[in-house]
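[audit] Reproducing an earlier prediction to check determinism. Same input, same settings, fresh worker. If the tokens differ from the archived copy the diff job will pick it up downstream; this log only records the rerun itself.
[audit] input (65 residues):
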Amino acid sequence: MHFFLFGIGLYFLPAIIAAARQTHNATAILLLNIFLGWTGIGWIVALVLSIFSAPYYAYYYYRGW
């Protein structure tokens, strides 16, 4: 049971990172993770996007909103 929960947490790690960092495209990362995360390449792309995306406040601060 613990292994299953660990696997689910690992699968959704990019979405968790994006939500914790409050990135401006967290929803897109979650959808990418759900639909293409099983391919491996989609999971890596979602992980890279979640790590290198600008936080929500920085995205609008630099654009003058």
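[audit] rerun output stored. Observation attached for the diff report: Residues 41-52 form the longest helix (12 residues).
[audit] end
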